[in-house]
Amino acid sequence: MSEHEHIEKSTVSVTLPRKFYNFYMECHLWDEYSSYSDWVRDCLRRDMVRIGNKRELEQYTKKTRGEKIQEEFDKQ
Question: N or C of the chain: less Cβ packing under 10 Å?
């Protein structure tokens, strides 16, 4: 079993540690958002993250994946 899950939604492609997988599966409507950061913020605000540590997820996405995913949003 891989420790990471690869997820594709529309043209956005994400690879995250498995513990964050449910976050992406539950917050899947990112086509409705103009930016990745807005999407993450809204999902966190709606308390859809069930990994127990929202701050860790926020830091992870901002530091390691946020810029790359934002680039994908900008292409759309």
Answer: N
